[in-house]
Design a protein that fits this description.
The protein has 13 helices and no strands. It is mainly alpha-helical.
């Protein structure tokens, strides 16, 4: 992986943690997610005028990714109903780099170096340890958090293969985001008849979270054209470090010495991936 790609994926990790904090901090997470998806619909509908469609070979992956992302949205909301961001987020994200690495090996015949494998294990291990450092993990959100991790691994591998078939990461990303984002408003209004009473600031924050999520994952899709999926996934999941910082600064969540030690393990893994 080149330094440029490495740097962009690191930036994507910061952006990814930010929009997850927006979702976690919202008073009605289903509505916050719906607003985020509405923003994505608006942006991608506009950019479709200027961006071509991806190659036909990539369309099965576009559709599959959109479907998996929809399931991911629902699972993510369920995950955040209990537990703080610093605990639920690592469970959801920690397992995905290993799952992506295995999936890429099976479905894309992708191989990685021994040092990269060590780096991925350090990142995943450090992330997972963040969730088990204080009180016992509550059983009511653990299944949803683990399912979310599987879905993350699934859509990452699907998008990694799809973008390589598309030959145009921007076209692939725009088509996938457009197809995915239209589902959430439909789901919301199928479940509820009215929107909650959000303030203007809450609404704008959620909408901006949707725009940030486009940038965050769009960078990841672009990076998978040039680097191994497992390595890109592990770098993206360093967002838990920034999520812990955001949780401490803005959501009044505790950042303990043990969490800092886990973050150092993650940084060590990133160092292995950077070599």
């Amino acid at each position: 992986m080149t330094p440029i790609v490495f740097g962009f994926v690191t930036c994507a990790a910061v952006l990814h943690a930010s929009w997850n904090a927006v979702l976690r901090g919202g008073s009605d997470r289903l509505w916050s997610m719906t607003l985020m998806m509405t923003a994505i619909v608006c942006v991608t509908s506009f950019t479709t005028v200027f961006i071509s469609w991806p190659n036909a070979a990539s369309w099965p992956y576009v559709v599959a990714s959109a479907a998996i992302h929809t399931l991911y949205n629902v699972s993510l909301i369920r995950t955040y109903r209990s537990g703080d961001l610093g605990q639920t987020y690592p469970i959801s994200r920690g397992s995905s780099p290993v799952l992506v690495t295995v999936g890429a090996a099976v479905f894309a015949q992708e191989t990685i170096t021994f040092l990269s494998a060590i780096g991925i294990l350090l990142v995943s291990g450090g992330i997972m340890s963040l969730a088990f450092q204080r009180e016992r993990v509550r059983a009511d959100f653990l299944p949803a958090a683990l399912v979310t991790g599987v879905l993350i691994g699934a859509y990452t591998v699907v998008d990694g293969i799809g973008v390589r078939l598309a030959n145009d990461s921007l076209a692939y990303s725009n088509a996938m985001f457009l197809l995915w984002s239209v589902t959430m408003p439909i789901i919301y209004f199928a479940l509820r008849r009215r929107a909650p009473a959000y303030t203007g600031a809450q609404t704008v924050t959620a909408l901006m979270g949707g725009v940030v999520s486009i940038l965050a994952y769009g960078i990841v899709i672009w990076a998978m054209k040039f680097g191994e999926m497992g390595v890109v996934s592990a770098l993206r999941e360093t967002s838990v470090i920034y999520a812990a910082m955001i949780g401490r600064l803005f959501l009044n969540e505790e950042l303990t010495v043990r969490r800092i030690a886990s973050c150092l393990a993650i940084v060590s893994g990133v160092a292995c991936l950077a070599v």
